[in-house]
Specification:
By secondary structure, this protein is of the alpha/beta class. The chain has 2 domains: 44 residues, no CATH class; 277 residues, SGNH hydrolase (Rossmann fold, 3-Layer(aba) Sandwich). The chain contains 13 helices and 9 strands. Helix 1 crosses helix 2. The radius of gyration is 23 Å and the shape is globular.
Length: 352
């Protein structure tokens, strides 16, 4: 912090050489109406205090040493939001402990964009509202309206998604996606950054069971095309390439075999506990760090999913939160990190 203060003093000195005088503000500056180095230093001290205060809508100095970052993320989705987000609070803390992260999930089982559009039109209290706040475990409330969830926090980011069964067909997206975007704009506390969560393509085992002739990779190509249209045709500004990370992992010989049903799933649809869910969490954390311009990485992170870890995070507090037994070895986590990193670098391509 001393170096930061010295930098401010240097900048103030430079300013003083180019600005001859300044207007006195509320009588708080130098009595002669001119800025000097001490005046600027006092202004800087207003942001460096023992009482943490967020500045610039997302960061604060904690009094003496570090800058902290605050981020509030809402996902309007279904069980794929559960899969992706339930590990994120603890993972984020292990990657960057200076982030105060609040997460909300507006959950409705198997909901498509059309389903969400119909629910918000009726202002129905049909949602489960999952919420994670700094220093607390996951909790949830049933029978909540989407309007109330949107207005519950001053959200910085709102994420949307299509159901896995329809996400490769853009005809299912509109006009429902625009309806939801308009709704968010109407009821959000302030302007939010909109993101799109690309969820995993259907696994080969599920496609075969459903009698579909598409392969998982071919299904993924359709998902990518739809995602690109969302970015090109709507106010959505960025993508969280969870589906790409999962597809990368399915092409890894060891990772692709994980899960009770293989292909990282425990039921041919949902990500199994352990490495499969961690792949999705890695991808989300990388994306959120990028959105905050924080130069941190999940590469080399040592967090391993365990029963204790799940219980401490409140992740298995309800039976529907749990997705099978924990799978994956320590070595698998390193490969999982690579899959997530490559997905964020190349969100629309499979990386072998």
């Amino acid at each position: 912090m001393k170096s930061f203060r010295k930098l401010c003093q240097l900048l103030a000195a430079i300013l003083l050489t180019t600005v001859a005088s300044a207007q006195v503000v509320n009588g708080d500056l130098n009595h002669n109406g001119r800025l000097d180095v001490d005046d600027v230093t006092r202004l800087i001290d207003g942001y460096v205090s023992d009482s943490p205060e967020y500045i610039d809508g997302g960061a604060y100095f904690n009094g003496a040493t570090n800058m902290r970052h605050r981020l509030r993320v809402l996902s309007i989705g279904n069980s794929k939001s559960e899969d992706t987000f339930f590990y994120v609070p603890q993972l984020m803390q292990s990657v960057c402990e200076d982030v105060d992260l609040t997460i909300g999930i507006a959950y409705y089982s198997s909901a498509s964009l059309k389903t969400h559009s119909e629910l918000l039109a009726k202002d129905t209290t049909a949602y489960v509202y999952y919420k994670s706040q700094p220093g607390k475990v996951w909790n949830w409330e049933q029978n909540v309206s989407l309007k109330r969830i949107i207005q519950d926090e001053d959200w910085d980011i709102v994420l949307l998604q299509e159901t896995m069964m329809k996400q490769n067909d853009y005809a299912t997206y509109q006009p429902y996606l625009n309806d939801i975007l308009d709704y968010v704009q109407q009821y959000a506390v302030h302007g939010v950054r909109l993101g799109w969560m690309m969820t995993p393509a259907l696994a080969n085992c599920l496609l075969e069971r459903a009698g579909m002739t598409l392969s998982s990779d071919e299904y993924f190509e359709g998902v990518v095309a739809c995602c690109q249209r969302v970015l090109a045709e709507t106010p959505v500004g960025f993508v969280v390439p969870v589906g790409t990370a999962v597809q990368n992992a399915r092409h890894n010989e060891e990772l692709g075999q994980l899960g009770d049903e293989g292909e990282l799933t425990f039921d041919q649809v949902h990500a199994q506990e352990g490495v499969p869910r961690m792949i999705e969490a890695y991808t989300m954390v990388i994306t959120l760090l990028q959105e905050m311009n924080i130069p941190k990485s999940i590469w080399g992170n040592q967090k391993i999913v365990s029963e204790e870890w799940l219980n401490n995070g409140g992740i298995v507090a309800a039976k529907w939160m749990r997705k099978g037994n924990i799978v994956g070895t320590k070595e698998n986590y390193s490969e999982a990190q690579r899959c997530a990193i490559m997905a964020t670098k190349f969100p629309f391509n499979i990386s072998e």
